[in-house]
Amino acid sequence: MTIDEALIQLRLGPGINEDVSEEYNDAVDMAIEALIQLRDQTEWIPISKETPKENGYYLTTNMFKEVYCDYWGGISFERTETVIAWMPLPAPFKPQESEDKE
User: Fold this and answer.
1) Cβ–Cβ under 8 Å, residues 86 and 45
2) Per-residue pLDDT band at 7 (split at 50, 70, 90)
């Protein structure tokens, strides 16, 4: 099942009714939002359709299916001229509170 298919199933779920608690509906809403964010963060963006809006580091892939972390300077990527798609870097790791205390 893809993320988009999961989103459809979640949206078609039981919905708000007497048989489902408000907490369940809140959890489904949170799951839908998390899936949308995950989908938006993990899709490659073809360079032919869109370039990054801000200067910075991005994941890039080239015609040889190699993946790099490359810097976008506003006109092109620095490392390679053969970039065919890019995506934002994932968020940095954030330890959970229980991991901080160990």
Assistant:
1) yes
2) confident
CA distance 72 to 31: 32
Note whether 32 and 11 are within 8 A (CB). Answer: yes
Size of the chain, expressed as the number of residues it contains:
102
Q: How far apart are CA 95 and CA 11, in angstroms?
A: 31
How far is Cα 75 from Cα 46, in angstroms, rounded to an integer? 15
Tokens of 55: 């200067």
- Calculate the average pLDDT of the chain: 81
| Residue 18 predicted with pLDDT over 60 | no
pLDDT at 85: 94
Helix (H, G, I), strand (E, B) or coil at 23: helix
* CA–CA distance, 52 with 26 (Å, rounded to integer): 34
Q: What percent of the chain has pLDDT over 70?
A: 83
